Amino acid sequence: MSTNNSTIVGGGLVGSLLACYLAKRGHQVDVYESRPDMRKAGYIGGRSINLALSVRGWTALEKIGLKGEIEKISIPMYGRMIHSVSGEKNFQQYGKEDEAIYSVSRGELNKRLVELADSYENVTFHFNELCEKVNFQDTSIDFFNFDRKEKHQVKADKIFGTDGAFSRVRSAFMALPRFNYSQNYIEHGYKELHIPANAQGEHQLEKNALHIWPRGSFMMIALPNIDGSFTCTMFVPFEGEDAFDDLATEKNVVDFFEKYFPDAIPLMPNYIEDFFRNPTSGLVTVRCNQWYQNNVCLLGDASHAIVPFFGQGMNAGFEDVRILDELMDAQNEQWSKVFPQFNMLRKPDTDAIAQMALDNFIEMRDLVADEHFLNKKRVEKLIMADESNQYLSLYSGVSFSNERYSEVYKKGLKQNELLEELVLIDDVDLKIKSEEIKKKIRQKINGG
Ligand SMILES: Cc1cc2nc3c(=O)[nH]c(=O)nc-3n(C[C@H](O)[C@H](O)[C@H](O)COP(=O)(O)OP(=O)(O)OC[C@H]3O[C@@H](n4cnc5c(N)ncnc54)[C@H](O)[C@@H]3O)c2cc1C
User: Fold this and answer.
1) Percentage of residues in the chain with pLDDT exceeding 90?
2) What are the pLDDT digits (tens) for 255-299?
3) 434 in the same domain as 355
4) Residue 364: inside a domain, yes or no?
5) Which of 64, 262, 303, 446 is the most buried (most CB within 10 A)?
6) Are residues 161 and 271 in the same domain?
7) Atom of ligand 1 nearest to the CA of 283
C-alpha cells in the first residue's frame, strides 16, 4: 500500500467519495471544506434538494462498499409521469421493468459520504476552510479559516480540486498557457418548490416516478423524498414570455400556476410563499481542456459542470472517481501518467454528457408530449423488446449502463436516424420483426 498524502479541496459529493477511495488505498487524506460541518450545522447551501442517482453513481458507490448504505435513503423512480395541462397523467417507463433511477436527498447523501469518509482513521476533515489560491510551483494552498478569521498556507503532495462549478482550484489554471475554458449559462433559471406529505405522511403523487409538467418552452418536475414530500423544480426562462421576470407579483404567479399547473396547486399549499422566498438560480455548463498541472487535478463539477436535465452531474463526478481509481491501479499511482490519462479518457465523455444534458432539456420540457417523439419511443420500445437486436436506447445507455458517454452519444445519433426512418413505414409495429427491418437495425447500429 502507498503512504501518499492527498489533499482534497471541497468536501461535497465528489470530494467526500474521493476521500473514501483514497483512504481505502492507504493515503493520508485531508479534506478542506469551506462550509461548516454539515453533520452539526445541517446542510446549508447546495443547489437542488434531491438528485437522481443512476447506474454510474451506484457503480462507483458499490466498488467501495457504500451502495447498501445509500440505498437506505433512496427511492426508485421507474419512469416519467407526464402531467398534461388538463390534469391527465401518462406514465412512460424508463427502461426494463426493474430499471430505475433513484431519488436521494443531496444533503443526506453528502452527510453519509462525509460520515463514511471520516470513519477511516487516515482521513481528516477541516471545515470552514476556504481555498483562496492554489500554487503549482510548490503544491501549496492558501486558505482562509472562517473560525479563526485568518489566512494560512498548507503544503501538499497532491491536490484534488473537487470544489464545484465555481472552483477556486480551477481558477489557478486560468494563468496557464493554452488553457481553454468556457462557461455557458442557458436562458432558463430554476426555482425549488415543495409538495408536502399528506396528513398520513404519505406521498400525494405516485411515489415511484419522476413527475414532469412539460409546457413547451418551460417545465416543472418533482422528485420524491423519503418523508412523503416531493421537491419540485421549475425551469423557466429568465426573460421573455412566461418568464421569471414576468412573475414579479403574487397575482402573476397565481395566474401562471392556474394556467399551466392547475393540478399541482391543491398539492402545494405554500407555493406562493415558496416562490417568493426561494432563490432563482442560473444553470451553467463549464468546460475546460486541461484538468491537471503538476500534482494538481480537477474532478467533478470543477472540471465539467453540466445542466441537470439528464440527472448526470453527480453521476459523472462519481464515475470520475471510479475511473481515476482504475488508472491508479493500472499505473501503480505514477501521477505523471495517471493524471494525463485521466484527462484524456474523461474529457470526451464529459463533453458528450454535457451535450446530451442540453439536448435532454428539449426532450423533457417539450418532446415528451409530442406525437412524433412518442411514435419514435414506441418503435424503439418494440426494437428493445427483441433482445436479439442488442439495442440500448440513448436514455438506457446514459442511465442504466457504464458504457462511455461518448460511445452512447455516437450511437444515439445513429439510433435517431434509424427511428426517423422507421416511423415513416406503414404498419411498422407489425413489420418490426421482419428480416428487412432487422437488417436495417443491424446496419445502422453496427456502423452501417
Ligand atoms: C438543479 C440541479 C439539479 C441537479 N440534479 C442532479 C441529478 O438529478 N443527478 C445528478 O447526478 N446530478 C445532478 N445535479 C448536479 C450535481 O449537483 C453536481 O454535479 C454535483 O453536486 C457535483 O459534485 P461536486 O462534488 O463536484 O461539487 P459540489 O457538490 O458543488 O461540491 C463542491 C464542494 O466544494 C466546497 N467548496 C466550494 N468552493 C470551495 C473553496 N473555495 N474552498 C473549499 N471548499 C469549497 C463546497 O462548499 C461544496 O461542499 C444537479 C444540479 C443542479 C443545479
Assistant:
1) 85
2) 999 999 999 999 999 999 999 999 999 999 999 999 999 999 999
3) no
4) no
5) 303
6) no
7) 53
pLDDT at 194 over 60: yes
Mean pLDDT, residues 329-356 taken together: 97
Q: Give the residue numbers spanning the domain of 246.
A: 183-282
Residue 242 has pLDDT above 50, yes or no: yes
Ligand 1 atom closest to Cα of 130? 42
Q: Is the CB of 301 under 6 A from ligand 1?
A: yes
**Is residue 161 in contact with ligand 1, taking CB distance under 6 Å?**
no
* pLDDT given at position 448: 52
10 lines ligand 1 (CB under 6 A): yes
pLDDT at 344 over 60: yes
Q: Which three cell numbers stand for residue 279?
A: 432563490
Same-domain status, 243 and 345: no
Verify whether ligand 1 is closer than 6 Å to residue 315 (CB atom).
yes
Q: Are residues 332 and 419 in the same domain?
A: no
CB 271 within 8 A of CB 193: yes
- Ligand 1 mean position, distance from CA 336 (Å): 27
Task: State the pLDDT at residue 48.
Answer: 47
Do 249 and 228 share a structural domain? yes
Give the sheet arrangement for strand 101-105, strand by strand. Answer: 50-53, 101-105, 74-77
C-alpha cell at 68: 447498501
Asked whether residue 259 falls in the same domain as residue 203, the answer is: yes
Residue at 98 is within a domain = no
DSSP states along 62-123: HHTT-HHHHHTTEEEE-EEEEE-TTS-EEEEE-SSTT--EEEEEHHHHHHHHHHHHHTSTTE
Task: Please say if the pLDDT value at position 340 is more than 50.
Answer: yes
